[in-house]
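Hey,
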Amino acid sequence: MSNEYILEATRREVIGKQVKQLRRQGKLPAVVYGHGLEPTPLLVDLRDATKVLRAVGTSTLLTLKVDGAEHAVLVREQQKDIITRQLLHVDFQALAMDETVRTQVALIVLDEEVPAVKDYSAVLTVGLDSLEIECLPKDLPESIEVDASVLKEIGDSITVADLPIPEGITVLVDADTMVLMATAPGGISEEEEAAEAELLEEEGVSAEPEVIEKGKGEEEA
């Protein structure tokens, strides 16, 4: 098994409150579960784990070495200290390379040059920042790119159907789901504003707010 990200681990006998002592020794408590494995408590080096986990996402395949055996795993949960943000615990899920897996893959917006932003001062509104997918472990992408340069005018949008989905991946989100949209700086497009004004006119309501003056005595009352 060859993988860019590798972590060495050992089986952990200490559980419960006693793991605090292990953390002070620079060790990170973890657990691995999944294909062909009973949930197994582990210890990994805190420094190594912090470096590796900072670079990976929820769809990044890692190689976890435990007592000479290698497991292809995904990071399923990371617990961190609220204040220091130091890792406290990690859950790994072991995968079978011939069985599909469901996970979330990050959506990375490429927004170096967005015409709608440049020409109309549009604001990019994010509908999704990750995508639920299913595929074999070997086909897992670390991320999927979203080309925002296709947003030319206010109101233009990118849906799930527009994304460049690699071969072998099944998307588990509706194709019409909005991923990214160019919206007006005030949050409403000119088309939406015009449609609202037309509707009000049809209903006999002025688009301008009506100001009702009250006498001093009425206000005090």
